[in-house]
Each structure stands twice: as C-alpha cells, then as structure tokens.
Amino acid sequence: MTIAKYIKIWWLMSRNSFSMVISQRLSFSVFLLGKVLRFSFFFAFLYFLLQGTKTLAGYTSSEAIFFFLVFNLIDVISQFLFREVYRFRPLIIKGDFDYVLVKPVNALFRVLMGGADVIDLITIPPLIFVAYYIGHSLSPTFAQSLGFWILFLNGLLIATAFHISVLALGIITTEVDHTVMIYRDLTSLGRFPTDIYKQPLQGFITYIIPVGIMITLPAKALMGLVAPAGIIAAVAIGIIALLASLKFWNFALTKYTSASS
Amino acid sequence: MNKYLSIFKISFQQEFAYKVSFVMWRFRNMIQIFVAFFLWDKIFENPGRIVFGYDRSKILTYVFAIIIVRALVLSARAADVAGDVAQGELSNYLIKPMNYFKYWFTRDMSSKILNISFAFFEFIILYLILRPPLFFQQNILIILAFLVSIVIAIMIYFYMLFIVSSVPFWAPELGWGSHFLVTIILIEFLSGALFPIDILPAGIGQVVMSLPFPYLIYFPVQVYLGNITGALLVKGLLISSIWLVILGISMKYVWSKGLKVYEGVGR
Amino acid sequence: MDKAIIVDHLVKNFEVNVKEPGLTGAIRSLIKPLKKAVHALRGVSFSIQTGELVGFIGPNGAGKTTTLKTLSGLLFPTSGFVEVLEHDPWERKPEFLKQISLVMGQKNQLWWDLPAIETFELNKAIYEIPTREYEENLNELTTLLEIKKHVNTPVRKLSLGQRMRMELIASLLHKPKVLFLDEPTIGLDVVAQQKVRDFIYEYNKKYQATIILTSHNMDDLINLARRVIVIDEGKILFDGALEELVSRYAKEKIIKATLSSEDNIKDLDKIGKIKKLAFPEVVISVPRSATAVAAAELLQNFAVDDLTIEEVPIEDVIRKVFRGELRK
Fold first, then answer.
1. Could you tell me the residue range of the domain that residue A224 belongs to?
2. What domains does chain C contain, in order, with CATH numbers?
3. Half-sphere exposure of C317 (CA within 13 A, CB side)
4. What is the ipTM of this complex?
5. Model pTM greater than 0.80?
6. What is the per-residue pLDDT across A66-102, written as a single tens digit (0 to 9) for each?
7. Which candidate from A23, A104, A256 shows the least CB-CB separation from C127?
8. Is A102 within 8 Å of C102 when comparing Cβ atoms?
C-alpha cells in the first residue's frame, strides 16, 4: 500500500516536472544540446589523447573509455533520479520546505526524488547502448559481469548517500548549490580511472569520499581486476555511507529553523 | 572616475559578503587543476617521454599556468547580468548616471584582483605539494607579448559574457541555459583550460584556433611558455584582435537592439 | 470537552551567525563566526479545546510563528512538552499529519507553472484521499471560495487573492481537524480578505475544527477570534477572551459628550486628554480610576446635553500589542 502510494506520488511529481519542462521547449533544447556537447567533447578529447599515448595508467583505449562511460552512467542516472536536490535551496530560503514537512509523505523522499529530469531520459538510452557495446568488447566472463552489476548498483547507493548529505547540509547551512557542484567536481575525478592520482589523493578519493568505489571499481570488476573480498568490502562501505547519510539527515532536521516570515 | 573607484571598493566587499560562494569557487578551481595535473603527470610518468610535442616539464608548467591565467581571464561577475535582464532589475541601473558596461567592467576587475591574490597562494601551496618541474620565462619581449594577449583575453571574455547575457532580452527563460552552453561547455573545452589545443589532430586544431575561445587560455599560456613566437605570435595576436573588434561591435549592436525590446516590454 | 492541543513550558532557542560590518569584520567572521543564541520561546504553556478558534497576537518576532511551527512538527523543541491530537508533532507520523494543516500567507506550496488542479491531485495522492471524498471536498471548497473557474489556470497567472484561496484549498482537501493559519490574509485586498475570513469562520463552525490564527490584520482577530493569546518576547502575557483583554489593559476610558454652549471650552483639558473637539461633540480620554470624578466635573462645569462613558476601542489595545507596549 505505502509503496504503491509512493510510486504514484513519484509518477505525479515527475509528470508535473515533465509538463513544466516541455512548456519551455527552448530551454529544454539548450540544456540537451549542452549535455550532448559536453559528453562528445570529452569523448573526443579522450579519444585523441589515447591516439597519442596509446595507454592511460596501463589501461587500453577501450578500457579508459569504459571508465569514462561508467562515470557518465552513474552521473546521469543520479541526476535523473535526484534532480530535485538542485531545487532544494529556494525551498529552504523561502521556507516552502515547511509545506514538505507538514505532509504525510516522507520529506526526504519528496526533496530527493520529487521530479525526475526528463532531459536525461533522452540521454540515458544511447549512453547505455554505447557502454554495453564497449563493455561487451572487453569480453568479460559471467562472474565479471555480475561483479560489475553489483558494484554499479553499489555506486548508485553511494551517489544516493552523497545527495542525502548534500540536502542535510543544506538544511543546516542553507547552502546547496555549491555543495552539489563540489560533489560533481569530486565525482568528475572519476572520469579517469583513479589509478592516475597519486597518494594521498588517491587514498582520499577511494576511501574517504568513495569516488573510486563508486565509479572506478565497477569498471575494474568488469575487467576482472577486483577480488570477491573487494566487492564485499565495497558493498559494506556503500551501505555504511547510506546509513550515515540518513543519520545525518535526521540530525539536520532537528536544526531546521524555517525561514521566518 | 571617482564613481567607479567606489564601485570597485563596494564590489570587493560584496565578494566577501558571499564568502562561501567565493571559497567554493576557488576550491572548484583547485579540483580542476588536480584532475589536469594528475592526468598529465601520469601520462608523462617517464621523464624522457615526449607526446604531442610536450615533455613533462612543459605540460606541467602549462597546467600550473592555467591557475593564474584562469584567475585573470575567467573570473568575472558579468555573468550576473543575465539575471538582471531576465528579472527586470536592469532598470535600476539604467536610471542611474553611470555607464552600465563600465560598472560591470569595474566589478570584473575587483573580482579578478581578489581571485588572482587567492590564485597566487594556491599556486604556491600546490607547488609545494606537487613539486612539478616548472619553466620560468625570462625573455622580456615574450612576457610583454603575454601581457598583451592577457588584456585581449580579458576583453574578449567580457564581450562574450555581455553577448550571452543579452539572450534574456528576447528569451528570459534562457538566462542560465545560454551561460551553461557558452561558459560551462564551450569555453571549458575550447579555451584550453582542460587540455592544450594542439593535442587535437591538425585539421580540427586549425578550426578551433580560428574561433575566439582558445585566445582566452591556450594562446596566452603558449605565448608565455615560448611555444608560440615570431610569425605565429603575430598571427595569433591578429586573429584575437579581429575577434575582439567583431565581438565588441556585436555586443554594442545586440545591446542597443535588446534595450529597445526591454523598454518595449516595460519590464 | 477534550483538549486538542497541550503546550507546557515550551522553550525554543536558535543559534544565529552575527554579521560584522566592514571588510575586517567580514574577514574575521570568515575565520571565527560570531554566534548568538536567540530565545524564541521562553517557557510557553497553554491548552486549546477541540473546536476552539484562537488568535495569537504580538509584535513581530514575538514567537507566534515559532509556536505554530513547533505545533505542526517543523521545529524541534529545545525543551518542554507539546501534544497535538494526542501526538508528539515532532515524530511527524503520517496519521498525525493527515489530521492537521498549516497555511502560511507568505509561502507557497502550489506548483508555480502548472494549474492548481495538479497540486490538488498530488495532495490527493499524498493524503490518500478516496476519489469520491476528494471530488466532494474539491467541489465544496471551490464553491465556498468562489474560485471554481480558475482551477485550470496556471498558478503564475492568478492574482494574489486567487492564489491564496487556491493555497487554502490545497491545505484543506484532506479536511484537517486542526488548522494553523499564519497571516492568512496578508497582502490581500479588502474583498479577498473578507472572503477568506468568512470561509475560516464557516469551516470552524461546520467541522468543529480547532484553529489557531496569527494575524496583523485587526479585522481577522475581531471577527474570528473569541479567545486571544498575547505573546511577546517568547512569553505569554495574556490568555483569555478578547473583551477581557481590553478591560485588563486599557488604562483609560473614553467620555463622549455633546455640549450646548461653547462657554469655558478652553478649560476642557483640565478634565482629561482631549481626543477630539468639534463643537458640539467632544471626546475625552481619562484614567480608568478617575472616570466617575471626571464625568461629574464635566456635568458640573460645562453645559452638557448628553454624555456616555465607553471602553477604549479593541483596535487601540491590539495596536498597542503589536507595538509591544503591553510588556510593562
């Protein structure tokens, strides 16, 4: 019953943001164009780079490109699901978050997932197709594919934890836009396999802010470079991150001051 | 002139009022430097390696030079103009006895000075952490040419921002979208802030070099590094000057048209 | 009668960053922000019966809105006890939230670019209102508020008054038993104010709904609230009937007289403070305890045709409350 209710609410909210987006067709096309351009530019850069260098940190051309594709997939899927996070700041500043809290629907659900981004609905399918194509060319075994899928979902879990923390921080500091951008900058370190970074940065982005576990590890699993113990450890970190972020969210709510009128 | 000095001062303080924004913006710049640095550092792990005509010392100097050139060229407040236009706040300025373009140029200058002083510290800190082999230019003439190219870059960027910010005159909802497309996507990739343009295949590289974007970052940095000299230097300065004039005229034209629309709507 | 709301020794403190002036101040606050505790509520206690309509009044920043927000579960109380409909609001249990509603005149829950009906549909799903009931309620509310024909207009194209009425509908579709109204008529024109006011009155009567109302609008309070609670600086100064507020706090009474001649008219100010003098009418305000003496003196020394003694108008007392003049 409750799950059905939440699916229905999600559907209604996504439909609402869809009708708003298509009412601004021009803006929609500009953003779509921007996203496609960004992807193609970076792809081209990577391609030309590897034309010259042949390998990157010991990875072949298609392997390096596969890392980049996994980064994009996780990035785009979490943007598709968690678009509402980008609209959280006005909600806090104007105090309209009050209306979210007084409703009998989980407030976190509402501000995290209320309204999927339609633009990404267009970009996700071709991305999946290309990732599948390149991934397939790496000829993984069944176990390697399985490892990839487990760690890929785990990566989305960590992305969720990140977004929840951003929201919680937003309640305490009324600052959202910059933390989201920093989150995105940090994850964009994962456009390349994290092996290229030197210590201690590499350790930092692998364990403290688990960009490596979130993006690099799934791709590595597909290439058969992750032991089963590594997969278990990664999933444990993912679950801990999610639980910690939920705790942080609940703490942040007690600090909510509600913009006074 | 005094008037603009006051604007300069108040703008400087304004940046401090939004200290979180400022610190975050610097932090983000640092992350981008990290990505570029480590990428190239890895590729040139072997000190003797030469790819795309670069050796380790030159490519890492390129990355470090970006810190300073970015702060000088790409820190500007004029991106806020689009918001002024879209929300109709432009009127508050138009009724005041000052030049709107000079107003924003002054604010850009204060932003640049603040950013460059922070960039200077970051440069030192990053240098101490990463210890890259750096190359310091000693030829006065080259440094002079570098400074000229920086001035041109600053002006080109200023005109670009104003042209982009005029989009909301006709389509108010596109204020942020057009900035996203031009300043975040096009400039980020085509200015050379992420990678030097000459790693691209010759044909594509030539097309890019005929656009105004590489004259924001890539060209000044290459001039400093002494990679562009003689006839190529003159050619580059010529192309960027032509762009400067074209963009300047376009901006004046677009704004005179836009202001008519603005007044017509009565926003 | 049972109690819908119980509040006992409620305390709420906020911590705020203090901005220091000037450039050096800005740099200092970058390194070490100056924090200041704000005591929004300092031990507030009251209870409200089911079906009561109570007005909260007090100057700006007195703690009215903080109280409402704590009662609806938005703010975490620093200490003290709060119970609404036998629930702890802070837990925000769905079965509690389904019975209450919060309406804020300055905030907005409608989807700005879409017709209001889309928000209503969404609330239907959120509050799990059965379709039949939803249709009935929507029909009733749109009729009562006379806004039926606008439900399919995008919200941004509505006037402020129309939008406020839509906000009310969105907040009431689930027929809440307890209603918190924070400045529901702010910014509305006189006609729209009256519509909203009539509606609140009707809703309270028809459904025996418990309503707490804060307002800076005199007419809201006088027409709607039988009982008022005066809050200032986070404390309750008065809790009782509106008329009682006047007799308790008005230190003066008003003598109105009609004179038959202008003799000695200059000496009138010896009786008390002259509020109005437009022969033959005169209005004098005198200290409450000296009313009888003043009236007698007036009758003795002046040619009086008619004389009445009245309480100070409610508006004057409430105005004093808003200015925070009740503290002393």
1. 3-253
2. 3-247 (3.40.50.300), 251-311 (3.30.70.1150)
3. 22
4. 0.85
5. yes
6. 999 999 999 999 999 998 998 898 888 888 899 899 9
7. A104
8. yes
